[in-house]
Design a protein that fits this description.
- This protein has a domain at 60-172.
- Helices cover 38% and strands 6% of the residues.
- It has helices at residues 35-43, 60-67, 116-123, 128-148, 154-172; strands spanning 80-84, 103-107.
- The chain has a two-stranded antiparallel ribbon with strand order 1-2.
- It starts with 34 loop residues before the first helix and ends with a helix.
Length: 173
């Protein structure tokens, strides 16, 4: 079969690029407001949008305190990582971490040994109901140990009661 080459009918021409100002994020000076917004401003009922803070408890110091504890599953010392609880029951979703109040210390992988953290996250070793029950038990042990060391923050207590309490009430029905 004979191969044919396509030839350009016109030559390449250098052209100017689009102005990028209209695509850049930020405030546009001459943005017009709609009729509904204008009326709301006149009446005084327009919304003043404010950025929301984090919806769950986040604390670097709390993560460090949890990681300093021994593994809550196998009691190995000095190899722990702060592991968030897994499960949609606690607010976990695709790309969403749960509150830092729901952290437990689990050991990391070592040479020729999978750690408890990776077994919990990717293992699939135990069924889901048993895993959730273990995680709640481990969370209470972690909380008790940090309270004993006076390192358990009130914000973590509030978040834990809000999230885990809802799950426990729902599972008892």
């Amino acid at each position: 079969m004979k191969r044919t080459e396509l030839k350009r009918r016109t030559g390449l021409v250098a052209r100017t690029t689009l102005a990028r100002k209209s695509f850049l994020p930020g405030k546009r000076e001459n943005k017009k407001i709609g009729l509904g917004q204008a009326v709301a401003r006149l009446v005084g009922t327009h919304l003043k949008h404010k950025p929301k803070g984090p919806s769950v408890f986040r604390s670097e110091q709390h993560r460090r305190n949890v990681a300093a504890l021994a593994c809550v599953n196998c009691s190995i010392e000095r190899r722990s990582q702060a592991a968030h609880l897994n499960g949609v029951e606690f607010g976990k979703g695709m790309g969403i971490k749960v509150s830092d109040a729901l952290l437990i210390p689990l050991c990391a992988d070592s040479f020729l040994r999978r750690g408890c953290h990776s077994l919990l996250d990717q293992g699939g070793v135990i069924d889901k109901a048993t895993a959730v029950a273990h995680q709640i038990d481990w969370l209470h042990k972690t909380r008790d140990e940090l309270k004993r060391k006076r390192q358990w923050p009130q914000e973590a207590e509030d978040d834990m009661a809000r999230i885990v309490g809802v799950y426990l009430r729902r599972s008892m029905l």
